[in-house]
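Why this split exists: single-chain examples teach little about how molecules sit against one another. For that reason, every record in the complexes split bundles all components of an assembly together and asks for one structure covering all of them. Below is a record exactly as it appears in the raw files.
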Amino acid sequence: MSVLLFTTLIALGSFLAGFLGALTGLGGGVVIVPLLALVFHVDMRYAIGASLVSVIATSSGAAAAYVREGFSNMRIGMFLEIATTIGAIVGALIAAHVSTATIAVVFGFVLLYSAYLSVRTLPVPPVNEKQDALSRALHLDGAYPTAQGQEHYTVHRIPLGFGLMFGAGTLSGLLGIGSGAVKVLAMDQAMRIPFKVSTTTSNFMIGVTAAASAGVYLARGYIDPGIAMPVVLGALAGSMLGAKVLVNAGTKTLRFVFSTVIVLLGIEMIFNGFTGRI
Amino acid sequence: MSRAMPPKSTPPSNWDDHHIELIIGKLLRAGVLISAAIVIFGGIVYLVRHGHTVADYRTFHGELSPLRTVTGIFQGATQFSGRAIIQFGLLVLIATPIARVIFSALAFARQRDYLYVCFTLAVLAILSYSLLGSSLH
């Protein structure tokens, strides 16, 4: 395949991934690595390198829209970024020492888990009015706008959330993904942060987390400009368009289709990993 | 808009959390657009020169790439190599969230929330370790 055709096809695939990822809220990063590795037979290391930089682009590009309504809490974000960035470096270092087949298998399970999370609606945690002393000490308490005015909230189980965030960072650094799903799980389910605050703050954290492993990736030669160029530009354009049409799209069917694709890719990643074909 | 309250004095109104977040949002978007423009430019140079060659990324030989280090990228970019210009654009992209962290440190200092100045500097130290420790040879 010529470089021109290869670049065009990868740009189109990444555009679609970014578009569907933004539209369904599942993020495009999770399908870019399988797309590159399974369809274009790109080495896993180049694939996760390109995916990681595209994650920085899509999350940073969307940040302006996410902060507009005032849901995000930059203190929660900054505090938890200590955990995610350390995790990201650990993940990137692990990636350098395990086989690409192992990475493929772990990736496959993360894909299955993401798909599971997207179809299963998690229980809405009961509102816990009790003040958390640690949350107060760390200035994490906040407020967000609702129809009834400002709603105050406090953050719970901070050590657990911090630990989960370290795990989210490690996965991000190991697999070159944003791991937004794990971040939201940690904030929403473990720390009982209101959902809207969790999702918007999580987006904020993805770029910084990815930047932490990007340094390690760059030094190890995982970031190849020939692959990263079409992936970054395609995913960025796709996610920006996806965010624009988000409002009037019937996302339920799309979510189902996209989740099915994720499941199939996950199974194939695991299969290829176990048979050593990746 | 009242947000998580800094502990001591009230910050000047244009330094409240929501206002800072709006500035950060714009900062990130600007960084992404600048880097995308550089990547597009480098991509055109690269495709014009190498578009007809055969693409092969099945085997990994990234450890041999001169574009693994900041100095290597700068050298290549000054020689007008398309691949090096793309990589420089990606470097700007990676630097964008780091710029955000630096700006946050200044904002927290302005709010006199020194606990968060410390947290932010910790994140900055981790990022510096990753980028400078591993790629600035």
